[in-house]
Structures are given as structure tokens and as C-alpha cells.
Amino acid sequence: APSHATTWGRALWAVLLTTLGSVASQPLGGESVCTARPLAKYSITFTGKWSQTAFPKQYPLFRPPAQWSSLLGAAHSSDYSLWRKNQYVSDGLRDFAERGEAWALMREMEAAGEKLQSVHEVFSAPAVPSGTGQTSA
């Protein structure tokens, strides 16, 4: 069974991911349609700074060590949301937050793209196996 620190770290990562996802889904300046030509290309880099020096009280002293799960995200329109206030999250998001398993969440995102035509691209990047390091997509 995962340690409390691992579960906490994954939950924190899921909150970070959903927060970034909800911020990115808001249209700027009242514009709801992208008019960029050619299509915009994005990159994202996550830098983990979870070290025993930086967080002495929250750093796990026993196995497994501090770590970050894989990065998962989507470019989407305002028709799609990963979660909504005062509602339960999907099984896929719960699995990702609790166990770091991304497959069900990726399938849910892709299905929303097919159904709503609102998820334009799903992307992922490898996990950061220690509390410090980088991953990019």
C-alpha cells in the first residue's frame, strides 16, 4: 500500500494539475474562439522542488521517497472541465490522484474529445522519481 506521503504527494499533484487546467480553460478578453493561424504550439515543464531541506516537516523519511507522478493535461475548449465545484470527480481523476494511474483519465479525456469536440489534444510527460527534478511535455 502507498505511504501517506506518496498519497499526499499524488493528491497535491492532482490539485495542481486540475488548478492549472481550470485556469487555462478560461477565455481571455471575452474571446471564446481561437483565431490563431497557424495553430499555437505549447510546451510545459514541471520543476519539483520537494526536498528535505525545503520541506523538513513534510518530507517522507521512509520508503517510498518523495516523488511526483506523471504529468497529464489537455488542450480544450470551455465546454470541457476536468472537475466541477461541489461535484464528485470522475473515476479516472480519482485513480490518477490516489494511485498515479493515468490510463482511465486519458481515456475519459479522449472520449470527451470525441463526444463534445472540445478536447483538442491530450499530452503527458514522465514522472519525476524524486522530489526534485523536471519533466516536460
Automatic annotation (TrEMBL):
It comes from the Eukaryota. GO terms for biological process: cell adhesion. PROSITE patterns: SPONDIN. Coiled coil: none annotated. Pfam families: Spond_N. Residues 1-25 form the signal peptide. GO terms for cellular component: extracellular matrix. Keywords: Signal. Residues 30-137 form the Spondin domain. PANTHER family: SPONDIN, SPONDIN-2. This is Spondin domain-containing protein. It comes from Gulo gulo (Wolverine).
